[in-house]
TrEMBL record:
Sorted UniProt keywords: Membrane, Transmembrane, Transmembrane helix
Protein name per UniProt: DUF418 domain-containing protein
Keyword Cytoplasm: no
Boundaries of every DUF418 domain copy: 245-407
Transmembrane segments: 21-39, 72-89, 101-121, 127-144, 151-173, 220-243, 264-284, 304-322, 342-361, 367-388
UniProt xrefs under InterPro entries: Bact_Transport_Assoc (IPR052529), DUF418 (IPR007349)
Pfam families per record: DUF418
Length: 415
């Protein structure tokens, strides 16, 4: 380990260009998924696809539900795991206490996430990454081929817990306690229906203070019960798989791993595509809050589809990158400013839709708001390129780096 005590951030020329491209593409998928929940309560996610839609709205919603939802937060999680390894490995070369530097980086990310989830939008993923990131310190010295096994084990644990829950409920339904349990389920459904109705009202017409107050209750319902038990291990497991991929240099040195990337593509399509189609055809009306055998089956196939298609998408981008397709280079600047662009999504669309802003909540169908999402993403591709021609970092990336290294970083590029 280096004896240096002054840490410096990664210079732009040292960045992994392919990872920026993948991160830029992941931003698109995250936005296509999140746009629904800028106009729909987050708790409604437990009920699957909104089947009340018709025509282009339904076709758009179904396509995103089948091929996008879950696949891109998985991609972001893999990228976070890769970033974890790359950051720590570089920190070891520069400072005597790399774990402390990493902890500062995670702490600042957690602050971003806290502000985002409370004051901007409840669908934040940053705070979850910060919490999961603390557990990653337990795996600093774990070899790559054990990291991915740990990752798969955490994901499998989540699936197993859901199956145990379904089994337990099924056993209870065959016991004398069944009527009482059914009454409890009906009460839970009534509470959820009331919360969803209140959410529509508050987000459409409420003041900023009312929205924040309601958002806290929605977050508590989503994560305070069993939600965090099922969500956190999946995120941590996916991050560990990403850390393994980084240690194996699969996407950081892709030229040396063409064969592995082709295998990931085949694996992803072979397992991920059929699973995604099954969920899209037979799992659109699932009720995940109350486990049963059908829900457990869909939950399992969703996990397979999320990881499988995510790896396939990443492999396809890598093949295009290695074959010299120039158009995918436009994704890289957006990926370098991923934090800024991600937070901008929430600021723009909550301002556009919520009652304390312009108040367009519920005014447009899924197809219309998806077009809005694509328009914003296209603008961000241009703006990110323009910005990085003049500055070294995106605005939020600059804040994050400066706070991590406890020193204001040079923002403008040298003339």
């Amino acid at each position: 380990m280096s004896s240096l005590t002054t840490a410096t951030p990664t210079a732009p020329q040292e960045r992994m260009h392919l990872l920026d491209i993948i991160r830029g593409f992941a931003l698109l998928g995250i936005l296509l998924m999140n746009i629904e929940y800028f106009q729909r309560p987050l708790v409604a996610m437990a009920y699957g696809l909104d089947t009340s839609q018709t025509g282009l709205d339904y076709a758009t919603a179904w396509s995103v539900y089948t091929f996008v939802q879950g696949k891109f937060y998985t991609m972001f999680s893999l990228l976070f795991g890769m970033g974890f390894v790359l950051f720590l490995d570089r920190a070891r070369e520069k400072v005597s206490s790399p774990r402390w530097l990493y902890f500062r980086r995670i702490f600042v990310l957690g602050l971003f996430g806290f502000v985002h989830i409370v004051y901007i939008w409840g669908g934040d993923i940053l705070l979850t990454y910060a919490i999961a990131g603390l557990f990653l310190l337990l795996f600093v010295n774990t070899p790559a081929r054990r990291l991915w096994k740990w990752g798969v084990a955490f994901i499998a644990l989540t699936i197993l817990l859901y199956w145990f829950g379904a089994w337990g409920i099924q056993m209870a339904m065959n016991s004398p306690a069944a009527p009482e349990m059914m009454a409890d389920f009906d009460e839970q459904r009534a509470v959820m229906a009331e919360m969803i109705a209140n959410a529509h009202q508050v987000y459409a017409t409420g003041s900023f203070a009312e929205v924040v107050q309601f958002r806290l209750s929605e977050i508590a319902l989503m994560y305070g019960g069993g939600g965090i038990i099922f969500f956190m291990p999946t995120i941590l497991g996916t991050i560990l798989i990403g850390a393994s991929l980084a240690r194996l240099n699969i996407f950081t040195k892709p030229i040396e791993h063409r064969q592995t990337i082709r295998k990931l593509l085949i694996f992803g399509l072979l397992f991920g595509l059929p699973s995604a189609l099954f969920v899209g055809l037979f799992g659109i009306d699932i009720e995940l809050m109350i486990p049963d055998y059908r829900g457990a089956q869909v939950f399992t196939l969703q996990a397979v589809a999320n990881l499988g298609l995510c790896l396939a998408y990443m492999a396809i981008l890598t093949v295009l990158y290695l074959s010299g397709k120039k158009w995918i280079q436009y994704l890289a600047p957006a990926g370098r400013m991923a934090l800024t662009n991600y937070l901008t999504h929430s600021i723009v669309f909550t301002t556009l839709f919520y009652g304390y802003g312009i108040g367009l909540y519920g005014e447009y169908g899924r197809f219309g708001i998806t077009l809005m999402a694509l328009a914003l993403y296209g603008f961000q591709l241009w703006l990110s390129t323009w910005w990085l021609q003049r500055f070294q970092y995106g605005p939020m990336e600059w804040v994050w780096r400066s706070a991590t290294y406890l020193k204001l970083q040079p923002m403008r590029k040298a003339a």
